[in-house]
């Protein structure tokens, strides 16, 4: 995941010890980020993102649709679209907030950005049953009780990211037109342009907002800080093939005066969940889920099920 305000923070934290990161094969691909950014090493039991979502998630009946304040209105002023060489980031000011749905607080919406593949490959970061979607959109939010991202990133739940899969069909999605039209103004790294605000809710799977999965993880770009509460929606939004191609063929990871290098396949590899619990919302349907009793914390289910065995009161063959 990437966002311009955090990009400055990343530069501040790492400029003296590490080079910039990229997605190409070789020393700068995601598997090698840990060589320059030690916090990106996926050590045992580390809570890194993205992950693969599969059957066996834990149902939490308390996880209802999130409250998205200001998402259905048009904000004042101008938004800013920026090509940082890793993605395109739409900065949306601070007129929107996210809360509820089991999140540990209220979060201020900062920006959104995208991950995609190429004309021949899919490029979502999260996968479902190991399968990628063509694209994934991340809406990045910071816990509202912090004055800045530096403070928020010291909190294990300082950031909340809404992840929306994007699929491709034959029909143009006009809700994405303001962003896609602006891509021609930011083809190269470092370029920015204004975007007239629109109702951000239009980019979401509005009829399926109660269907999602929740887990604790990390940023998916350096410094890979493990400070993110992820909400991954199971129903994708649709864009046309031609709209997808504008991301995959008209954006470059290089500056204007450099030789053009297409910005493609800008996703981090999938990481193990280790001991983490992945929760399914009350309405989530895609993945088979176990129950989460209201009277007992889900994290204790395994221990509770083992107690009879430990006490010798249950034949393990039954």
TrEMBL record:
Keywords: Glycoprotein, Lyase, Metal-binding, Signal, Zinc. One of its GO terms (molecular function) is carbonate dehydratase activity. The keyword Mitochondrion does not apply. Its cofactor is Zn(2+). It catalyses: hydrogencarbonate + H(+) = CO2 + H2O. Residues 1-18 form the signal peptide. It holds the Pfam family Carb_anhydrase. Residues 19-282 form the Alpha-carbonic anhydrase domain. Its EC number is 4.2.1.1. Reversible hydration of carbon dioxide. Belongs to the alpha-carbonic anhydrase family. This is Carbonic anhydrase. It comes from Coilia grayii (Gray's grenadier anchovy). The lineage of its organism: Eukaryota, Metazoa, Chordata, Craniata, Vertebrata.
